[in-house]
Amino acid sequence: MPESSLPQAASPISPLARLAQCLHAHPPARVAGWRDGVALDHAHLAARMGAWAGMLERQPGRHFALYLDDSLEFGAALLGAWQAGKTIWLTADTLPASCASLAASVDGFLGQFPAAHAPLPVPAGGAPAPAWSELADDFPALVVHTSGSTGVAQAIPKKLLQLCSEVATLEQLFGAHAHGAAVVATVTHQHIYGLLFKVLWPLAAGRAVHAHSVDFPEQLAALLAQGPCVLAASPAHLKRLPEHLDWTGARAQLRAVFSSGGPLALDSALAAGTLLGRVPREIYGSSETGGVAWRQRSQEHPDDESWQAFPGVAWRLQDDGALAVRSAHLADDGWLCLADRARHASAGRFQLLGRSDRIVKIEEKRISLSAIEAALLATPLVDEARVLLCDAPAGERQKVAAFIVCTAAGQALLAADGKLALNRQLQLALAGQVEAVAVPRRWRYLERLPINAQGKTTQALLLALLEHKDAAPRLPHAQLLESETGGVASRLLFELRVPANLFYFDGHFTDAPLLPGVVQVEWALHYARLHLDLPAQFRAMHALKFQQPVLPDRPVRLTLEFDASKASLQFRYLSDAGQHASGRILFHPQAATVPGVGADTPTPAASAC
């Protein structure tokens, strides 16, 4: 098969091998970034690097998992660990399954991991800068620990030279757009995209960074207006920017917008461009490949969905249409075959056609799940679609499940004629296009697809929706936007959309349904227990306030903050309209439950419901 040419790789900027030395050479008073609006200089960053390096030099073992929600502190810890000769394992979360998998591979945990894994304490204060050494290109700098979209854990090692190549390529492609701009992000640095765009590239290029990811669009609009900046975001965040907010300042100050984690629909890309003044540059890649290609959609060429390969990245198509790449971002100079199918487009570009690993067998027939999704999206009833093959009991045939976000026409049909009528319409649309055994037998109609903190819709999140019965739901559609767990203080941010057919709206009240306050308390406990080690026994409830009602089909954000030292859970329900409810739940600190498992002693909210 023909392949693209292999351009010359970019020349490194501040090579990561000498990054600690380069940062130490900066003027001490030069701003490295901001934490909660307070400027932090390079003297502070160098002192924190020294503190982490000093602590880790005294620790046996080489492999350490690192999790911190502060990008500046994370950068100092990462560079300090490298100076101490340690390999850092990067994990997207601190959930029990992730930590258990990490524990089998690492010699210790650093930062905000659960106490059960005995994380080493964050070193206090600073330390005099030692004589920073230059690292070897083949230094084993990083292991990206990821479960991808399937839930199967992978450990992907990265040598320092691979990361250096990525940073140099980003500067070659986008450095002119980011010159003199601070970095703002709605994504975490705990995955490869955020690590590159929020930590390594800014540090190597000498750009200041806002240490914390931005949770709320109101905060984002204000922060982007403060001065020249670039934004690193994901499709999940960009397609939900509220139009009613004042983005005038952002349009004046933004130099570039980046998006990764999945393709951004054309209408979402252009809408974000209208609000922010910059159409997002989408980045295509993975934890294993690093950055592969990029694109920027335009109103002038709406049908152009093609991608331009990064400098230094060569690509070709296999005989089966699968995309293969070769670049300095990989562990060797061989070709890596990806699970994505593609075709040649104009000017040496390629267009993605879906994943080749989404071919399944049902009743000995090869079925393309991507083709089913494409057929559903071709109807005027479907805006977004995901289909999965469900496990079946022994002796039963496997079934396909479909997860649908309806268009306005689909929503109207669902409201007027019900779920069975919409099921039938979509099944008829698939007839003649897919095998009869592949027509979905299980359907879920959603306000939006669920996403995790990285803005991705995973198989695990979709399969969890099948556990809910078709009867009136008792929980909202929930999406975890941010997760900062481990240590003494933990914080979770959810976006909730309360369906109109919620069980608790029945009779409360007939003409004007309102979400009962006791249910709001129960939901706070429910989602806290899913992700946090809460003490088992309820003690008291303080400062309970209900300022304004939560209404059907109106998005609200739920913030949960747990202080383990005080056995206190603070919750708040907020939206663009303001605060809806808040309160503080206190527990007896003697015992703790397993996350996701409720205590034997019912909470007041559970008893009342």
Fraction of residues in H or I helices: 25-40%
Major sheet: order of its strands? Answer: 8-10-11-12-13-14
Query: Stretches where pLDDT falls below 50 for ≥5 residues?
Result: 1-12, 591-609
Structure class: alpha/beta
Cα-to-Cα separation, first versus last residue: 63 Å
Notes on the structure:
The chain has 609 residues and is α/β, with parallel strands linked by helices. The strands form seven sheets. The protein has a six-stranded mixed beta sheet with strand order 8-10-11-12-13-14, sandwiched between helices. The chain has a six-stranded antiparallel beta sheet with strand order 24-25-27-28-29-26, covered by helices on one side. The termini are far apart.
Features of the shown structure:
609 residues; alpha/beta; six-stranded antiparallel beta sheet; 16 helices
Sequence-ordered SSE layout with sheet pairings:
Layout: H1 19-25, E1 31-35, E2 38-41, H2 42-57, E3 63-67, H3 71-83, E4 87-91, H4 96-103, E5 108-111, E6 140-146, E7 154-159, H5 160-178, E8 182-185, H6 192-205, E9 209-210, H7 217-224, E10 229-233, H8 235-238, H9 248-253, E11 254-259, H10 266-276, E12 281-286, E13 290-295, E14 308-309, E15 313-317, E16 322-327, E17 336-344, E18 350-355, E19 359-362, E20 365-368, H11 369-377, E21 382-390, E22 399-406, H12 408-417, H13 419-430, E23 442-446, H14 459-465, E24 477-484, E25 489-497, H15 517-531, E26 535-546, E27 555-563, E28 568-575, E29 578-592, H16 604-608
Parallel strand pairs: 1-9, 3-4, 3-5, 4-6, 8-10, 10-11, 11-12, 22-23
Antiparallel strand pairs: 1-2, 6-7, 12-13, 13-14, 15-16, 16-17, 17-18, 19-20, 21-22, 24-25, 25-27, 26-29, 27-28, 28-29
Helix pairs in contact: 2-3, 3-6, 5-6, 12-13
